[in-house]
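User: hey, got a sec? need HAD-IA family hydrolase folded
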Amino acid sequence: MHPDYKLLIFDWDGTLANSIGRIVESMHVASDRTGFARRDDFAVKGIIGLGLPEAIRSLYPDIDDEALVVFRQHYAEHYIALEAEPSPLFEGVADTLEALRAEGYHLAVATGKARRGLDRVLKAHGWEDYFDITRAADETASKPHPLMLEQILAHCEVRPERALMIGDSSFDLQMARNAGMGSVAVSYGAQTIEALRAFEPRLAIDRFPELHAWLSRHTD
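Assistant: Yep! Here you go:
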């Protein structure tokens, strides 16, 4: 185990699961069905990580509350249909998490997904009780507010400097900074590694198993 870290907190979409394409498609479909102009793929990827209401309002600042409800419904219907077969985990995720857990790390998830959606994918992977704690955007504050990280830290009784947030978006890394934590950026998710380097992550990885390799080079 790395002498500095006890708790590893993971984003879900774009970090553990290869679901970015489905999120982008679902946003486009919801836009079409509600009569809003499509935003391009780059713009949609730029809001992944926020809670769904915050993401929609970021793309469509003038949307009213009634239209927001309808947009969310269309998004959810299409996304759930796509997720009849859950988005696959990225290569090496399952084995790496198992190795990290065996070495004694606390593992947690902090996601922009809603609780119902997170529970659905955890169940699909047989991970209902795998993580020490999981937090979803609709039961706490949306990223980049640090509340969900603070709740995870309190549950695990770990100080911020002993934890790392691993994610693929600026919201993940800004949230970690807001909580006084270090971060790890992944290059294969929603946002470019160039954008993520602006948040000075401790590490940037191109493949998920590189996280374990880096931690293993600095062991007790």
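Quick note: The chain has ten helices and six strands. Let me know if you need anything else on HAD-IA family hydrolase.
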